[in-house]
Structure formats: structure tokens, C-alpha cells
Amino acid sequence: MKRKIYIVDVIIIISLLLFIGCLLFPILFPAKAEVGRIADENGDGQVTLADYSGKRVGAITGVNYDQIVEDCIPGAIIEYYSSFPDLVIALKSGLVDAFIVDGPSLDAIMMEDPTIGRVPEPMSTWLMSFAFSEKSKIHGLRDQMNEFLKMSRENGVMTEIENIWFGKDDSVKVIPPLENLSAENGTVQVALETTYAPIVYVKEQKVVGYEADILYRFCEYYHYGLEFMDMQYDAVLPAVISGKCDIGASGLEYDEEHAESVSMSDPHMEADSSLAVPMSDLVGESFIEERGTLWERICSSMEKNLFHESRWKLIVQGIGTTCMITVLSALFGTLLAFGMCLLRRTQSYLANPLCDAYIRFFQGIPLVVLLMILFYVVFSSSNLKAVWVAVIGFALCFSANAAEIMQSGLNSIDRGQEEAALALGYTRTQAFFRFLFPQAAIRFLPVYRGGLVSLLNDTSVAGYIAVQDLTKMSDIVRSRSYEAFLPLILTTIIYFVLARFITMGVNALLKSLLPKRMNDAGKGKD
After folding, report:
1. Is residue 257 within 8 Å of residue 62, measured between CB atoms?
2. CB of 264 closer than 8 Å to CB of 131
């Protein structure tokens, strides 16, 4: 008998083809650079900041870039982004017409991507410094840093560091292993964001950069150990203020507003602000990057994102962290949820209200907010690692959802079954474990499976509290390659595969719980 093809099937197939086409379009048909758009408007070939009035200018949050744009480019429409790689990708994708960045970072971006240029007209300068926690266990760090910076300027060490990290010789851009530091006077914990080359970035799975070099030499001079805590840029200052770390880095601006909340060191660099634009804006003739064939572009993208500096190891490390957080959070969360189900079966008058309050609270609070409260407030004075804070946060949220799922399954079981078990001489506990819960599990496991997949996807926000999970590692790779397609698609595929493993595992568990007679009945129908 032939199967009919309905109109909905045609619509689904067309939709899938369109979706796949949209994903592959950037690789199959990459957009070519425009030809002297701004230069032709001026007629003189000279691009100025005024040409971007009324246009979209990207700025990173956490730095006073928006004020600089308002002062230097009146009428510009400011678009905010959380990291410099996102700004680069937004510019290349046409989401913004330009973005503001410090000079050294723009030099590093231009070395990696020749399609991006700089408007010659200078913008404002600003001072870059380190932030110090008032709650640090190591006292006097700021004074020691100020003394070290002053001494380094006098003896030429700062000039040496600048020549290394702002120069073009990549072979000298290394930092000795952190294990070489003695840690005789304690370990300095530094919160930073590693997508900010050449200030702070990751090279061959190690944190390097201009500020990282200063911090290493500082710790070496004063006999401290050094620990880097990689997190989102806008989470650095909260980590310092809460006392979760000793020092905040990644190009923090020295200004009066920051000085009111945290102690700032003396400036270690005066950074100039530059406007990054497409190279096509700067030339009066055609500028088209040689892209090669499709296969050559795919191979080049794989080389930049996976094999150069062995960046695939970052992805593997991120997968391990994501899997560990997911498994442990699911385990502890399930145990908590099961405990609440047992508690609700007691004769206590407070059990149900307390369980309901717990569930409503953790279902009503955003995961990112919960993680930041746990990391920066609850465990701010402890030495608990960020990954364990993440496990606790995700377990609490998952337990609230899992408890509801389990309870709904138990409520679907006819109460007469428990009464029948009691009439046969079983205790309430025996009736629960031998009859009620196994039947309820068969009913709630499909929904529980979806909760596990959601938990896996939710772990992508763990990077806000210095957890280097899969999503965070993907961001680090993007920060070095300045490409979005392959890292994001690869991350999506990995999450999909991990979700399939979860689904298969729960399905196997569900199959093992199904009574044999139900399987036999199903076969009989076939």
C-alpha cells in the first residue's frame, strides 16, 4: 500500500531545505567586500570619523567606549557587545558599520584578518589598570603592584614587555609555566577574560598576553603563586568586588566610577582608541579577499579553528567539563528531587509547603542570576572551585523541575494500588518502592529525559563564573580565529550528539522498566 504524500510533508521538506541552505550559504557563497563605499562618498579618498555619524558603531560593555563614541562621532548609533570576537564577527556580517577598540588589539585583529582596517583619525585615549579586591586574603597587593610598575618603568622592564606583546614576532610571545612560581607568600587569583588579544588571550592552551606577563613577573618578584580565573568580561569586576578573586584584569579602565567600587592600581598603559571598519571603506578601489575554492575555504577554516595551536584540545577540554557538570548535577538533582517526593509522603504539615516553596523559588530564578549569587555571594569567601559552584547551582534548579516531574508521575497512579498493596500485608514504604514508584517512573521518564537535555543546554551559561565549559572554549577559539561559522556549528553538533546520548540512555532505562507482559502485548498487536 502506497503511503500518501500530504501537503504538510512538502512544507516540512521545503522548510528543512531552506534551513540547511541558510546555514551553508555563508560558506558556499561568501559575501565579497564592498568597493570603497565611504571613500567614494567623500570623493577625496580620506575616511574620517564624521563619516560614521548616523551609522551603527559597536562597543564592548564594561569600558567607557560608548562615551568616547558619543564625543567623537555625534549621531552614531551605539550597539553593545560582550566580547571583541563578537564585535569582529558583527562587523564582518554587516550587523555594525564599525566598532571601537584599543589600538594594540586592533593591530592584532588586522594581522589575523586583512579585511578589517582602521580609520586614520585618532580618537580619545584612556588609562588601563588592574582592580584589587578589598576582601583579598593577601593584603597590600595594590601597593606592591604600584611599586612594581614604577620600578619596571624605571629599569626598562615595561618597555621590554610592550615590545614583546605589541610586536610582530609571535615566537617571543610566551610566558613560563605558572608552576614555576614559588607561591611562598600565597597564591594570587586573577579574574580575566581571555578573548582580548594581545592584552590577555589563550595560546596553545595557556593564558598569555601583555597583562598576563606583567602579572607573572609581579608574582615572581614577590614570591606569589598565580591562578587565572577565566570568565565573561562583564563578570570580572563583580568577582573583584565580591572578593572571589584578588585582582581583576583584561584592560580595565582607570576611572573615578570604578575607583568608587574597587581599588585601582596606577595605570600601566595609556591606550589609544581606534575605529575599526571594513577595509573596503578605506580604499578607493576594489578590495576582495582571495577566498579560494569551497574545499580550500573549509580546510582553511578547520586549520584556523581546530589544528592551529592544537585548538581542538580546548574543545575536548570543554566537552569534558560540560559532561562532568551535567552528570553530577543530574545525579545530585535527582537525589534531591526523590528526597522531596519521599518527604511529601510523610504526615508532616510543613513538608508540602516547604517543598512547594523550594520548587517555586528555584523555578522562578534565572540560572545565570543563581550562579552569580552562589559564586559571588554565598561562596565568595570559600575556596570552592567554580566548577563545583556550577554543579551546586544546576543541581538545585534541576531538582526543582525533577521533583515536579516525579510528583506528577506519582499522582497519576491510582491510589487503589497502594491500598491493595497494604491489604496484602506490605508496608507503605514497600508499596511505594515495589509498586507505585516503578509504575510512576514509566510515566515520568519521557518528561524527565527532556529535563536532562535542557540541563545539558543550560550548562552553556557556566562561563559567567569562570567555568571553561564547551561554550566558553568555543568563544576562546572564535577569539583567535575571528570566525563564527565553524566554531558555532561544531559546538551545536557536539551538544546535539551529547543530547542524543542522554536520550538513548533514558530510553534504555525506560525499556528495562517496562513490564515484560507489556512488551509481549505490543508484539501481539504487531
Report:
1. no
2. yes
Cα–Cα nearest to 511, from 442, 412, 434, 449 = 442
Cα gap 429→441, rounded to integer Å: 16
Rounded distance between C-alpha atoms, residue 418 and residue 14, angstroms = 52
- Tens digit of pLDDT for each residue in 118-143? 998 888 888 899 999 888 888 889 99
* Alpha carbon distance 429, 410 (integer Å): 14
Q: Comparing C-alpha atoms, which of 31, 34, 483, 28 is closest to residue 293?
A: 28
Whether residue 499 contacts residue 319, with contact meaning beta carbons closer than 8 Å, is answered with no
CA distance 410 to 401: 15
Q: Which three cell numbers stand for residue 351?
A: 513538608
pLDDT (tens digit per residue) in 269-325: 988 889 999 888 887 544 445 556 667 777 877 888 888 888 899 999 999 999 999
Band of residue 332 on the pLDDT scale cut at 50, 70, 90 = very high
SS3 101: strand
Do the Cβ atoms of 345 and 432 come closer than 8 Å?
yes
Joined grid coordinates for residue 458 = 543550560
Closest CA to 72 of 102, 38, 48, 49: 49
Mean pLDDT of 473-485: 83
Bridge partners of 196, per DSSP, are 200
Query: Is the Cβ–Cβ distance between 418 and 429 less than 8 Å?
Result: no
Cell numbers 547551582: residue: 393
| Cα atoms found within 13 Å of the Cα of residue 247, Cβ hemisphere only | 30
Angle between helices 351-364 and 386-411 (to 10 degrees): 120
**Nearest one of 409, 393, 395, 492 to 448, comparing CA atoms:** 409
pLDDT score of 36: 40
Distances (CA, A) of 52 to 42, 333, 372: 12, 52, 38
State how far the Cα of 104 lies from the Cα of 107, in Å rounded to an integer: 5
Orientation angle between helical segments 312-344 and 386-411, nearest 10 degrees: 40
Is the previous residue joined to 198 through a cis bond, with omega within 30 degrees of 0? yes
Sign of CA dihedral 216, 251, 255, 149: positive
**Residue at 264: amino acid letter:** M
242 CB neighbour count, 10 Å cutoff:
18
C-alpha closest to that of 104 among 279, 269, 278: 269
Given the DSSP bridges, would you call strands 187-192 and 247-253 parallel, antiparallel or unpaired?
A: parallel
**Cα-only R_g, the chain:** 28
Return the amino acid letter for 262.
V
Q: What is the mean pLDDT of residues 161-186?
A: 92
**Does residue 437 come out as left (phi exceeding 0), alpha (psi in the -120 to 50 range) or beta?**
alpha
Question: What span, in angstroms and rounded, lies between the C-alpha atoms of 399 and 216?
Answer: 42
Q: How far lies 490's CA from each of 112, 281, 302, 306, 316, in Å?
A: 21, 32, 10, 10, 12
What's the DSSP call for residue 355? H
Cα distances (angstroms) measured from residue 237 to each of 170, 258, 287, 358, 455: 30, 9, 41, 31, 28
